[in-house]
Amino acid sequence: MKYSSQSVAMPYFIAAIGLFVGQIIFGLVMGLQYVVGDFLFPEIPFNVARMVHTNLLIVWLLFGFMGATYFLVPEEAETELYSPKLALLMFWIFLVAGAATILGYLLVPYSTLAEMTGNNILATMGREFLEQPLLTKIGIVIVALAFLFNITMTMLKGRKTVISIVLLMGLWGLAIFFLFSFYNPGNLVKDKFYWWWVVHLWVEGVWELIMAAILAFVLIKVTGVDREVIEKWLYVIITLALVTGLIGTGHHYFWIGTPEYWQWLGSVFSALEPIPFFAMTVFAFNMVNRRRREHPNKAAVLWALGTGVMAFLGAGVWGFLHTLAPVNYYTHGSQITAAHGHMAFYGAYVLVVLTIISYAMPLLRGRAANDERAQVCEMWGFWLMTISMVFITLFLTAAGILQVWLQRVSDTPMPFMAVQDQVSLFYWMRLWAGVVFAAGLVTYLASFFVKGESKPLIHA
Amino acid sequence: MRNHESPTRALHHSDHGTPLRATVIWVVLIAATIVTWSVGENGGSGPAVVGLLFAIAFGKGALIILDYMALRRAPLMWPLLALGWMTLVCALIGIAYWKGLAA
Amino acid sequence: MNTCVQTLVSPSAAPAVASDGSARRLPGDLAIWFFILAELLAFGAFFLAYAFARANNVELFNEQQLALDRNAGALNTILLLTSSYLVVRAVQAAEAGQSRRAATWIAGGFACGAGFVVVKLFEYVAKFAAGVSLSSSTFHMFYLILTFFHFMHVILGLVILAALWNGARKGRYGPGNMNGIETGAAYWHMVDLVWLILFPLVYVMR
């Protein structure tokens, strides 16, 4: 760690990992509810568990992005953070608001929560992933603005690098597109149209910039490759990601009442969305192959390479599987979507956050890298989580193909619930893969507590 | 201004051909364009005409790829990828055209 | 995997030898070639989408194609080809150590590219006045999407040419420093290359 204010990243990373644990617990609950429908009913119905699972994911990734930014920007800008106090204050506000929201989901019926939090003043709730009460949404905007102010001021007074500019573009985009969560037109087509401006333009647009910037930063640090080379790749990757991702929004506009041309625009551009991810994979491996130093933090290198590969598979390949309109006509909203969602979020965003945590945490704790034994433990965590996620994805894909066949393609289509019974074997296997994932997560957590001699600090 | 009249220049092998070659290619490209345009103006249609159009397009594309883009002297993978793209696109357009005739 | 990535990413690592004995070399930056391949894939996908959509609607496509301005299309082809030629001359000038002369050639290339933009804008204005829109027919949708996607590439190409002109004017390029000008030129030729298929496909083939 070069600047003392970078240490504000630490609580963000810890909170991120803590919420990650919560997300996985609710994932397991839902995995069981898929096959044992009344498990924990009526205390935690499936829809609530799902809301908590997805909301926790988003919130912990945001904690991870913010932590990454607080760690990365001072180092790139070569100056202390504009206001570490503001950063810490925002941390507590965000954590308390996030926790209160999750408790609200769990303790109060959703409709009561809506009444209590002013949804009748401005109705924004009740839409998938944007379930947060109005107060929470406003809180998110305030935290985001304070955060962006802090980061932008830091950058203005320091060195401006391509990496930090790309990161900041991504973060500003994230904040701006979130504003569409307040727009809730009565027309259902319009509602869905703009709903995707938050959901899609986050994960297939601006988040990709954040991801590419974080990955590039870690790669510079662990490989020692010239910044100029890495920046060139960054330009190519973000241009491709933005062009394919922005117009690729069309792949959500196939069947919601929008004009026909979206089927062409959506199909062609989203079919190209794997390209930036492929570029990222090639980029990561190429940089590591051309490395000029052997960084003692082997685990961070593994996470970075894992991000490249898994993001391409999950976001690229599994996205492509069902993105063409004629295919999506059959697969829309099936378990194939769930398969893609799991591996894409894990491969692209979970892994990139864990990459920066793996790189930054030892530095924040005053050493260049963890002891060999701690790193081996961490790498076991990586492999257990990654391989079990591959299996979760494969089982869900199998379930999805069977589902589409029985429910939609067959000459004698079966009703939804009857099909769910037919695919339950895959749900059971997915649940067991989920248990292995949880074991991997525990292994990963344990790696933080493995004692041993630490590597001395080196300065990159 | 830096001085580029360095001794390495004598050793530097040209990758971009001569101005004369570039000019001759330009003349060929323009002439080919006029052929394509006149086919369109005369309302030409049918498999033979479309075959001619895309043979011309392929020839023009190959000149751009090999000479103007200077892939002639690049590692083989690159001209092959670019020419392979041209071949694939032209061939599939041909198949689509034939499919439209049959329909 | 490693070796595969290695060959894909650094072809210059083990230079093959051309027939005349000089080492084979990819002009410009590797990243731009990766980008160009992605662009070719994108345009390829659109060309094929057009061709196969046409196969299901031959009469509609043939009828509405007649309304396109083939003269403007041909003129634009000539402008792009000439612009490409001028940029080749610029690269050759830089290779000969005459960076400032290269700037003049690039300015010529830019002028031709700007000419393309003007012609295209007149074409669009006429089409919009005639009621052509993304939703007015499948043919119009493809015509607008394909040409507009290409149009945006011309605009980006012009920005790149402007940057090259600025660099060349300052004497930045020469036999020892060809990377920047070769990179920009490669992108510009790609914009030309895809138009060479777009023009016969959309304006002429029937």
UniProtKB/TrEMBL annotation, chain A:
It comes from the Bacteria. It is a multi-pass membrane protein. Its main location: membrane. Pfam families: COX1 (PF00115). InterPro entries: Cyt_c_oxase-like_su1_dom (IPR023616), Cyt_c_oxase-like_su1_sf (IPR036927), Cyt_C_Oxase_1 (IPR000883), Cyt_c_Oxase_su1_BS (IPR023615). Residues 1-460 form the Cytochrome oxidase subunit I profile domain. Keywords: Electron transport, Heme, Iron, Membrane, Metal-binding, Respiratory chain, Transmembrane, Transmembrane helix, Transport. The chain crosses the membrane at residues 12-36, 56-74, 86-108, 134-151, 163-183, 195-220, 232-255, 261-288, 300-321, 341-361, 382-406, 426-450. It is found in: Membrane. Belongs to the heme-copper respiratory oxidase family. This is Cbb3-type cytochrome c oxidase subunit I. It comes from Aromatoleum evansii.
TrEMBL record, chain B:
Keywords: Cell membrane, Membrane, Transmembrane, Transmembrane helix. It is found in: Cell membrane. The chain crosses the membrane at residues 20-40, 46-66, 78-98. It holds the Pfam family COX4_pro. It comes from the Bacteria. InterPro entries: Cyt_c_oxidase_su4_prok (IPR005171). It is a multi-pass membrane protein. Coiled coil: none annotated. The keyword Transferase does not apply. This is Cytochrome C oxidase subunit IV family protein. It comes from Aromatoleum evansii (Azoarcus evansii).
